[in-house]
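In keeping with the milestone schedule agreed at the kick-off meeting, the structural modelling team has produced records for the first pair of proteins. Each record is given below as a sequence line and a structure-token line. The laboratory manager (R.T.) confirmed that both were archived under the project's standard naming scheme.
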Amino acid sequence: MQTTKYCVILGTFRKNRTYYRLEHKNRANRLKEDRYSKKGKKKMAKKQEYGAGNITVLEGLEAVRKRPGMYIGSVSRKGLNHLIYEIVDNSVDEHLAGYCDTIRVTLEADGSCTVEDNGRGIPVGMHAKGVSAARLVFTTLHAGGKFDNEAYKTSGGLHGVGSSVVNALSTYLDLEVYLDGKIHHDRYEKGKPVVELENGLLPILGNTKKRGTKINFLPDPEIFEKTRFKEDDVKSRLHETAYLNPNLTIIYEDKRGEETEHLEFHEPEGISGFVKDLNKKTEVVHDVVYFKGESEGIVVEVAFQYTNEFHENVLGFCNNIYNAEGGTHLTGFKATFTTVINNYARELGILKEKDANFTGTDVRNGLTAVVSVKHPAPRFEGQTKTKLDNQDAARATGKVTGEEIQLYFDKNLDTLKSVIACAEKAAKIRKTEEKAKTNLLTKQKFSFDSNGKLANCESRDASICEIFIVEGDSAGGSAKTARDRNFQAILPIRGKILNVEKASIDKVLANAEIKTMINAFGCGFSEGFGNDFDITKLRYDKIIIMADADVDGAHISTLLLTLFYRFMPELIFEGHVYIAMPPLYKAIPSKGEEEYLYDDAALEKYRKTHKGNFTLQRYKGLGEMDAQQLWETTLDPATRILKKVEIEDARMASDVTEMLMGTEVPPRREFIHEHAHDAELDI
């Protein structure tokens, strides 16, 4: 069974989607399907011949076009924008090598993107393989200059696949290299060169005084679900890159609208300016603290500042690549920072001998920090580089942080006392809240059996269990009948839960629906400064939101996601939160098999491909389905479709959540007007 992946960009107003990044996964062939099936029956696979003839060899860039998700994460807008980042990262590597100070990124009117830099230019000379080096870079996986530490001491693009992957996934890619006073040209269509080489070298278009590389590419609509670049994400990424490289200027232009949008990103303050920008809407406790050092050949830069907010915002970068899932460099920084603050607190007598140390959460509450490392040989988890894996990065970051921060605090006692005061305040609030939580969640003896809401599963193996949060008693009743009680739990909720973005902590904890979910999940509850949340105690591997495919259902899903993101964010970061995709239609042909259609695009495709008459049944809600239909479409792991909730850009996610779910109306109205062209209306 095919597996499809896609993401929904923040702020896309679809009827059945939220503003979080969502990943669509077909759930076929899972372990638990073998372990449990409907009514306990095991499925037997047909015997098939398997021999040499079944082995397929994908030549050249065919592998990329066949499995694009392996290289760019997904074929949604997230993956689409990643094409730009791959090319820009190569230009940034030229800057890190000392040869480039300006990068131009243009979103062209025809939907293509142009990236131009003034670096050395991609080598165009003859390679030992008997072809121009430039063509080798764009047509061969794992070909590039980043494997040679002499050419690039540090770089973000290390796998040698970035340029070739962009080429493989584009309708066309046009290359101009300005080198030695000449314009060298090449062009590719769907990854294949269409320009004839001259004695193995790229043809020359003419003379120039410029130097560098210019790449124009058009994403392939056969690969991507949508081919319109998401400008907000692109601008955010480019601005981050400018902060991380204070001597670099990035010029951005968007020519797709009636008027060209022109922006220049140049941040001479570097990551100190980045932290100031992150805290521009909050009350700060002290000036930004910045330090830089080197250990084991790894350059470490840190900037931090405390605010009067009760949450932490620590961003990690390696070789200018944002590591959304963190990594060893953040682990080293956090551990050392906590140790240093505790040591100072005891030296100053703020922590007495009998007092317990501040927790890491206590110390980091109110902390905004940017940790940037330059590593000569980084290891990332995956091509998209979301998590750094080098243990030496932890040691280097810890060593530099320990040395530099003590030097700073020894000279700036007032700042130190302000930081410790933040930790002290957070610890007191944490202890108070822990007592409040205990009173609210346990003293009432709030049990599943007594409230009658949760229909739990029989298995206690969390790795195979899943809980469905169902909108309404009607759908909840059908779901309880349809489920496989071995591993599927059903938790009905009535109406729309509290919008936690606008509510105080006592109102949140007093909400009956929220208390039910906290008790059901079993892993506790965290409000930024609490430390009683323990992901290891989670009773279900998957928490699945199952709401109607209408506006009200989308609103309920959004409210639930806001709750998880603000109070139990690890559920999302660890990949435990999903959204069920119930079908919108059922096509009943006069001849042939009935078919469920999950959206209007599927319906349109069915109309074009189906021959003969058919009756169309529309589902207004989950309550209209009987138990068998609900099992087939939404509950059965072999046939259902789930969206996995992911957060790619933590900074943007927090800002967008605050804007869309907060109290300020004008920014929300402006956001809706700005992104109206992304809306898909169901009218």
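The second protein of the pair:
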Amino acid sequence: MSDKKFTPFIAPDQVMKEFTWKAVITGACFGIIFGAATVYLALKAGLTVSASIPIAVMSIALSRLFLKTTILENNIIQTTGSAGESIAAGVVFTLPGFLFLSETTSADYFNYLTILVLAIFGGMLGTLMMIPLRSALIVKEHETLPYPEGTACASVLKAGERGGNFAKTAFSGLGFAVLYAFFQKVFHLIAETPSYITAQTNKYLPSAKISGEITPEYLGVGYIIGPKIAGVLVAGSVLTWFVFNPLLATVVPPDVIASQLIKLGYLKDLHTAGGPGGWDPTTHQFADFATAIYRAYVRQIGAGAVAAGGFITLIKTIPTIVSSFKGSIGKIKKEQSGTGQSLRTERDLSLKIVLWGILALILLMAILPMLPGNGIASKLLIGILVVVFGAFFVTVSSRIVGLIGSSNNPISGMTIATIMGTCLVFIAVGWTGKVFEPMALVVGGIICIAAANAGATSQDLKTGYILGATPRAQQVALFIGAIVSSIAIGFTIKVLDTPTQEMLQSNIHHAIGTDRYAAPQATLMATLIKGILSFNLDWQFVLVGVAIAIVMELCGIKALSFAIGIYLPLSTTLPIFIGGAIRGWVDQRKKSSDNTHEEDLRQGNLFATGLVAGGAIAGVVVAFLSANDSIAKNLVLLNMEESITHLLGEQGYFLLGTFIFFAMAFVLYRVAMRKEESL
């Protein structure tokens, strides 16, 4: 196999400081910071930012200033810190749903202790289940699963270690992205999501929409994953926005779409304006018909496709997983016999730790009083469901981030599938009352956190594999990061949930769920649980997604990649595709060049890495600045969008942003075409 030819940056027999308290404590501090930022972003808009690369960049800077850490210590810093972002995303996407369930008493579970326990359980589960999967997904599929952010993070750390032009290229990309992002996110000189939508009455493509979130990080991710994956990804989005949307816009009246949005919890009633697409109760029309259709119907189709694609992927991966488990068992036997000492870079935590850890999690879920349930027996069932769904979606999540990166991991789609499966089990055993809704949310919440953390863990382990890190050290660091971050995440959520005086006067006791912190993902999860347990879910849309995934697989197309494209908006997949297209063009023009150069240290990859890092860092900084009300008000004064729109018009503003984005893409292309520096 080709993975045998791979040589890590640090040789397995080389002795170097790695797991030190200096590195762990620094990483834990970063985990707290990025976890808090993610909580804010996810509550506001359902979005997250990647943490590993920004932390890696910061660790290099701190190392040069005063920490004097090695490259492997810097890897431990980013590994420990990355847990904060992933766990925060999983928590915020689900657990605020306690506030929106049928029984008002369900809100009592939205307390600090319950949030803390569920966050730790989900974080632990994601890391535990990735231990036996590392060999199968990270090592054996090193060349087939790029893990773009993990590869990019390794490139950053290696560039920082090498210095010279390697670092210069990576950090020039970072600086370019930061400058671009601040002009976009602070001054709004560059439109964030240019879009064009056809009229509903259009004869050929009614309510078709083309849009792109023209950010440096998406362009960089696309370049890293390459044209093949990026092409399949955008194809799924094209099916959504140029086939499903025009078709449904033709046959489904606006009032029916609005009623569907009400059913899903996006819109209060037909007499209330707003919701996805901008419903107007006076004209009975949507300002953005395409978005309304997407939220009302297509996301359910996408969720079904993701679930089916994930199941197909799991079936295809079973032989690899089985061999990985056999390898883990073989390691245990060797350890017990005292023979067969493995290389440092092959030492994982024992499979016994995984098994005992999972058993402990099930038992704790059964006895802890702060978790919902009708006795030990019902809580045991919840624990078993968590482990079953966890084994499935941890694997799926790892493979997804291996293809397109953690930033685009459709965690909400996997959570939706988990909630559907859990509710069906509940129905099968006769649990259909409102009292069971919080129990279903617990399963969905833990799986969401576990899947998110598994994705981040996979990227970290990929980084470690490229660098020559000790897997065992990384896995311990991940456990520490998960616990520390969970403590801070729960605290941050409760602080942000504190109602203002105006809210209290209006008898509103939670800031989460208001316009201040809408928590859109959690609202959807609660709505699904209520709909399924009350036998009020549109299964026909879910099954359409399942059928599409099967058809794609039969056609020889990777169903999971295509399904992700259906679920994600075109605004996400299109800029990723542009980055992938540039990579394909560069590879085609440089196909006769020397192929012995390390792939992740090529000029294009280094600059793309910088774009991803810079965009993520800028997003976090802006999130922190926006969290302070006084600073947020001053940032509004810097917003030039209205002035530019007044001067150029909305479409002119969009065209200006698109032009600047393509200018950035051209810079990436020129850097990638430069002659490679010899190693």
